Amino acid sequence: MRRVEHVMGFPVSVRIDDAGFPEAPVDELFAWLREVDARFSPFRPDSEVSRLDRGQQAEPGPELREVLDLREEYRLATGGAFDVRPPGRRLDPCAVVKGWSVQRGAELLSAAGARRFCLNAGGDVVVSGGPWRVGVRHPEDAGRLCAVLDLTDRAVATSARYERGDHIVDARTGRPATGLLSMTVVAPTLTEADAVSTAAFALGPQGITWAASRPGCEVFAVNADGKVLRSEGFPVTA
Amino acid sequence: MKRALPVLVLSVAGLIPVWRYAPSQDTGAGAAAPAPAPSLSSSTGPGGSTSTVVPGSTVDTEKGPVQVEVTFQGDRIASVRMLRQPDHPQTTAAVPKLIEETLRAQSADIDTVSGATVTSDGYRQSLQAALDAKG
Question: Is the pLDDT of residue A181 over 60?
């Protein structure tokens, strides 16, 4: 079964290979992602995040609390380089919300009995079962790949400067992060893969070592000179 | 916040290899050393780029207070170092081995594509759209 819907401004593609898997859990997955968009978007004045930011809500709900704790975890881990609230900016948990919410969506499918599936949310991927063949987009050529992975029961996320331009901001300076062309991280969950690739990209060349030192993380980085630096355990196909 | 604490210690351990790459400077005797007063300092390097040193706030962990300092060259992080470290820092964290390769452009038979966020606008022209359409 395959389905593609657009949520939070990006396409979400689901492919489930279990024979006869019902539609209802997939409906639930998309309902969950739409709920996340409504509650955690800083761009919607009526969202929980916006209300909290304006002081109209005293305490975050348990799920927003979880997201804010994750944000804090990665802020601390990077000495402040990863922070979704740079000085003078609105509360914006986007940087952790995407990976976290899609990971939760994948867990929803697993709980409903899906065993072999692939979930791709705008380029961030969670797979169950496998091996799945996952291409990594070439940073300078949208139509080609710079690596192909064999991935089983893991997640992969890429941060790069194409598509949206300099969209990742270093919270310490409020300016775009530069220094790497692309940073791909494989991790046990998309929550970790997405946040670590974002943080490592913001850290620049030092972020490669930082990300590779995180337990369970494997990295594939393309530096500004177009050289690849990858960890030994990065699951490239032979 | 209980849940966050063990994670924090791991995170700090994860930072140590990065910190080792910074120009070596004496970081004192760990938690017993008083933290310098937070301040921002800037200087202009030989290349004309401005170097800025930004101390983070002190974070209390189960193992003692932790504080990092980030040095920027222009808008890029040049180094991260510990101003204060826990009483028992995990300094044995191994520096991971990295393999250097030439960047290749290839085409292959794949199931899905990872890349920086594809927006709904850009989706129609993407490799992923072609894979989804193939069914």
Answer: yes
DSSP state of A21: -
The minimum CA-CA distance between A75 and chain B, rounded to whole Å, is 10
- The whole-number pLDDT of residue A197 equals 92
pLDDT digits (tens, 9 = 90+) for B57-91: 666 655 566 666 666 655 555 566 667 665 554 44
Q: Distance between CA atoms of B133 and B75, rounded to whole angstroms?
A: 41
Calculated CA dihedral for residues A77, A82, A86, A90, nearest 10 degrees? -110
Q: Minimal Cα–Cα distance from B79 to chain A, Å?
A: 8
pTM over 0.90: no
pLDDT tens digit string along A8-37? Answer: 889 999 999 999 999 999 999 999 999 999
Chain A contact set for B77 (CB, 8 A)? 81, 170, 172, 202-204, 206
Interface list for B 20-39 with A (CB within 8 A): 21
CA proximity to A95, closest of A40, A48, A145: A40
Burial (Cβ within 10 Å: 0-12, 13-18, ≥19) of residue B3: exposed
Q: Do B101 and A80 touch (CB under 8 A)?
A: no
Interface of A with B in 60-79 (CB under 8 A): 69, 72-74, 76-79
Strand order across the beta sheet in which A10-16 lies: A2-7, A10-16, A117-121, A124-128, A155-160, A180-187, A218-223, A227-231, B98-102
